[in-house]
Amino acid sequence: xxxxxxxxxxxxxxxxxxxxxxxxxxxxxxxxxxxxxxxxxxxxxxxxxxxxxxxxxxxxxxxxxxxxxxxxxxxxxxxxxxxxxxxxxxxxxxxxxxxxxxxxxxxxxxxxxxxxxxxxxxxxxxxxxxxxxxxxxxxxxxxxxxxxxxxxxxxxxxxxxxxxxxxxxxxxxxxxxxxxxxxxxxxxxxxxxxxxxxxxxxxxxxxxxxxxxxxxxxxxxxxxxxxxxxxxxxxxxxxxxxxxxxxxxxxxxxxxxxxxxxxxxxxxxxxxxxxxxxxxxxxxxxxx
Length: 288
What we know:
Helix content: over 70%
Largest sheet: none
Structural class: mainly alpha
Oligomer: single chain
Distance between the termini: 22 Å
Order of helices and strands: HHHHHHHHHHHHHHH
CATH class of the largest domain: Mainly Alpha
């Protein structure tokens, strides 16, 4: 694999020295462009400098003062709220996606095409258009009459179903051979056992894809917490960053501490789903 990778980058043994030099320079430039801001954020979190125009990639007078101030500003509470929302929301989102995709991909029923069209339509509506109707629904949930405003449940329920995840799982499940399902039924497997033992294991790459994208979608939510949270104790971390930035008593370093804490879970989630995510992307490319 490394030989193919080097050949794609023109870094093979037969490459001319000047070609190698150009490629190395290009890769160094790409690393600087993408890693530079990340390093600046992390270094700024440990810096006592309050001037936003003088961020550096090299730490100067490193200190934990910003972290102490961030703790006093309840940043860990906001981080905990975000983790609860993304943990429960992603779990239910993946469950809804796999079961909905199974019905759309493997079952034949009247109105299946309309159902797929409705799922696709949800991806075409901007969040700003849905903001006011969503706030009215969450303030008085139909049929049960519950007010979910200013609760974590109000941030979880709207993200339980996501059209993107359903479409990805549906396309992957369509590629599972019907012979596998028929063989399981001949062996006496029921509907649920066939689903969990045959269909779902073959869609592991797709689970990695919807896991990474679903985590990022929920974690980066800003408008939804802004609609739901009326009390600062219900703020998620992305929403709290705005409050920290607007606080004149809080320096840039404290905001960068919050930004660093907001980055870490996304990186950890990608590392956890990395193998399945890459296999899912590769499988989608081959099928395409």
